[in-house]
Amino acid sequence: MQIPIVMAAFGTTSRAEATYRIINSQIKKAYPGHEIHWSYSSRMIKGLMQNKKDISHPREILEKLQAQGHEWAVVQSIHLTCGHEFYRLLDDIKDLQIRTSVGMPLLTSPQDHLHVGECLKPLIQAHKDKAILLMGHGTDHPIWTAYPAFEQVLRRMFGNRIFIGAVEQSPPSQDLIARIAEAGFTEVLLIPFLLVAGMHYRDDLMGDAPESWRSRLLQAGIKTEAIADGIGCLPCICEMYCDHIREALDVIPI
To answer: Do 28 and 139 have their domain in common?
Structure first.
């Protein structure tokens, strides 16, 4: 039997399915013959969508695969970083009898950071005179340091017009608009550094409320254009997840 692949998304109640279909299509092409299963690692999101029978937690899918006689499965995280949700995922599946090889989140190795930079290159180079603002979710996990680290990687690649902030928690982003203004920029391209441009994009980034990032940038005299999709729609991001699956498959003994 081919090793099944369990895709572990955090989950979202908004605009996720179209992005997941894009990723799923690319994974199926890369791994023909492998069963591909999708799951939500967030029990809160799964609870909100309990009327959808096709939404399962990774543990539930692994238990079914075990009952079918599978000895191994790949569990591919499609989290962006190794934060709270990733480690909860590991904890949730650690005591199962079926053995698992876990594919790492998007930004794990130094090469991952460079590769994501290359993925963003067409967007960044198409807006040469604008500041580029990537806004992620943010976290209180120590992995919050991945955000400023990634900013430095992108600045080495594209110059000091790159800025990265967070909607919630850390890294602290209170002075981000002031930094952009002080650098002399009057136009910004806002890229949602989120797999899916869902609730945070709609409300926190581009909402009409005075506290949204779009409103605050405009109040500071900075014209704002935004990419309407999360980075999960970029083909090269999907390729990176395919590469992480390959790395997870490679450590499974034949």
So the answer is: no
